[in-house]
Amino acid sequence: MAEQEQDSTAPTAGLPTTTANQETDRRRASFTHIPKGSGGTYTFTRETTPYIGTSGCGTSLGVYFAIDDTRCFAAHIDINVITSEAGHKSRTMFDEGYSDKVMAEVAHRLDLEQWVAQWGPPTDRMRDSLVLVCPNVFIGDFPMRFPLVGAAVCVAIQEWLQFEHARTPEKVDGFVVQHPAGMPQYLSGDAMDAAWQKEDEADEQSGVWDIEVRHVEAALGS
Questions:
Q1: pLDDT over threshold 90, residue 71
Q2: 45 exposed, middle or buried (CB, 10 Å; 0-12, 13-18, 19+)?
Q3: Which of 58, 90, 201, 219 has minimal CB crowding within 10 Å?
Q4: Is the peptide bond before 11 cis (omega within 30 degrees of 0)?
C-alpha cells in the first residue's frame, strides 16, 4: 500500500518554483488504488495511507468493508461467464443459472478470504461500512432487460454479509474511503483523477478477483 508522504502544513518559503502540474500533484492526496481484478484483506499501519479505493468499474464491481480498526476487505471484482467450449464469454446474466454460478463463486472466495485472514463471522461493522459501486448493472429494456455480472456480484456479497435486504450499488465507476470510519467519496473519471493520486497496490494482490465461471450447459441448451 502507498505511503502517505504529503504534508499540507509544510512551509513553502525558499522552495523552488513548481509547475502547475507539479502543484496539482502535490495537493492531491494519495490512496491505495485497487486495479481491476485485484483485492483482498488490507492492513493499515501508521506508515500507510488510510485511504483505499478503486476506479474504472464499468460492468465490474468495486467493494469495501471494514473488518476492524486496522483491516478491511476491498476488491475490484471482475467476472466473465464462459458459455461455450470455444471459450465465448458473457457478462449478461441471461437466466438464473448464470447468476447462481457467479454468486456461488463469489461466496466461495469470500469464505476462503475469511478463513485465511481470520475475519471471524460477518458483523454489523462490516455491514454498516459496506461500499458498493457499479455503474452498469442491467442491459436492455423491459421485457428484454437482463442483469449484468455486477448485479449478481452485488447480491452475493450482501447475502454473504447476511443483509436482510440487498441494496443496489452506487452508479459510479469508483470510490475512495478513509479507513476505518470515513465516509466514502464516489467519483468517476476526471473527477477521480483531479482529486486523488493513485498508488497501485502490491503485486501479490493482482488478479485474485479476476474470475472466469463456466456455464456451458446453458449456452448449449442442455
A1: yes
A2: exposed
A3: 58
A4: no
- Exposure letters 47-67 (e unless 16+ CB within 10 A, then b): ebbbbbbbbbbebbbbbbbbb
Global pTM exceeds 0.90: no
189 domain-assigned:
yes
pLDDT of residue 222: 41
pLDDT in tens, 98-136: 899 999 999 999 999 999 999 999 999 999 999 999 999
**Residue pair 20/40 in contact by the 8 Å Cβ criterion:** no
Q: Is residue 200 part of a domain?
A: yes
Looking at residue 145, its pLDDT comes to 77
150-169: string of b/e by CB count within 10 Å (b at 16+)? bbbbbbbbbebbeeeeeeeb
Count of domains forming the chain: 1
